[in-house]
Amino acid sequence: MKVLSVTDLSKTYPGFRLQKVSFAVEAGTVMGFIGRNGAGKTTTLKAIMNMVHTTEGRISFFGLDMKENEGAIKQRIGYAGGAVDYYKKKPISKLLAVTKTFYDHWDDAVCSRYMKLFSLDENKTPSELSEGMKVKLSLVIALSHGAELLILDEPTSGLDPVSREELLEIFRHLKARGVSILFSTHIISDLDKCADAITYIRDGQVVYTGSVDGFTRGEGLEDAMICREKEAFCEKLAL
Questions:
Q1: What is d(CA 41, CA 184) in angstroms, rounded to the nearest whole number?
Q2: Where are the domains of the chain?
Q3: How far apart are CA 230 and CA 228, in angstroms?
């Protein structure tokens, strides 16, 4: 079963085009979304969440069209787009109290569990947190309402190596429970430890989507991406 299906997603900005992006995430799998800075990863994820309005394309979750079922869909998914950067001076406890009112299935026990696991103090404000701790707070919010699919933009960014490994262990634990995860990252080595599939975007176009093994062709994941980027660069030089 596909929990997310993206078909021919397109968006035009001055100097950049997202061109007919298509891929799908299967239930109970982890998909890594990779590409160089500026390739279109964040634009794609925001478009999937209807935070960016596209010129073309179709997005469906759990077989439901996003445009027609956005409210119901967002009850079933979690999104973290970088570090929490709003209401910087409000205590985290108040931030969570407001956020939970938007979800029908918010679980205070799960929220408390992840707050403790990530060593987050609810009496602190976001302005008092390090960048890595802000990312963890974003994840607490995404994980606390029983989401069936997590969409995460650079979730390991700003985390120290130990914290990154802990987060990847959480991903593996969630996958074992049937939760699907789509996350972008520039730390390719993280994907070697948890990803089932890869979607690779370059200059606004998907150039590969499929299994990790199919992408690496016997190489390490990071080496495979560097090799493909080098090939593309050499092609441009030859023009």
A1: 7
A2: 1-76+148-212, 83-146
A3: 5
Question: What are the distances in angstroms from CA 143 to CA 72, 108, 213?
Answer: 17, 11, 29
How many CA atoms does the CB half-sphere of 25 hold within 13 Å?
A: 30
Q: Map tokens 């609810």 to a residue.
A: 122
Amino acid sitting at position 84: V
pLDDT tens across 162-218, in order? 888 888 888 898 899 899 999 998 888 888 888 999 999 999 999 999 998 888 776
- How far, rounded to the nearest angstrom, does the alpha carbon of residue 124 sit from its chain's CA centroid? 26
Judged by DSSP in three states, 12 sits in strand
Topology given in CATH for the domain delimited by 1-76+148-212? Rossmann fold (3.40.50)
In eight-state DSSP terms, residue 94 is: H
| Residue 134 near residue 120 (C-beta atoms within 8 A) | no
pTM for this entry: 0.87
